[in-house]
Amino acid sequence: MLAAALLTVAMATQPPEPEAPSLRLGIRGVAEQWNEPALASVYQAGAPIGAVSIGLPLAGSLWLDVEVGYRRLNSADDEELSFHLIPASVLAQWSFGHGSAQPFIAAGPTITAFQEQYAATAEGLGSIGGARLAGELRLGLRVDTGLVQPRRAPAPNPVKDVGIELYVARRQAGPIGGRTGFDLGAWRAALGLSLAL
Hints:
The chain is mainly β. The protein has a single domain (21-196), classed as Porin, CATH 2.40.160.20. Helices cover 9% and strands 58% of the residues. The chain has helices at 2-13, 37-42, and strands spanning 24-34, 46-59, 62-74, 82-95, 101-119, 125-144, 161-173, 186-196. The chain has an eight-stranded antiparallel beta barrel with strand order 1-2-3-4-5-6-7-8. A hairpin with a 2-residue loop joins strand 2 (46-59) and strand 3 (62-74). The two termini are 41 Å apart. The mean pLDDT is 84.
């Protein structure tokens, strides 16, 4: 009887099971190395890009990861020449493993929008732009920093964990409708911080 009472008290004082996150918000620094030789000859062969991400759970360890980045490149030879790059991806992401470090693999479609601005005649600045569809494969690791600890009392806490994310990826792209236009395929590497809500 005493053992049963002690077991009941011990179970009552244990912290509740952490709730599964319903949303993951992230900010990432992404380094890209592009395939397109025209970018390397006029601007750069690669550059860091700032990006934000939203993760939505689909089922169990399967998530939907949406990432959007932006970078402006300036030409060293022409002050009025600039290139704006907006890579976006919608990837299915599967996490595996348990504990504070969780590897993941992700794959899905991407679209990279671009606009090049240049000096025109009397009309002012001219520009050309477009977008390239591609596919991306990503391998990464998410590590829980341990900054958010489970509470002893069942009090609401909007942040479930704070994680450090890193990944390497390949965006494979080719111009649509033949071999004309920019090839914005790239090798990618990212480091970021995410909040699970």
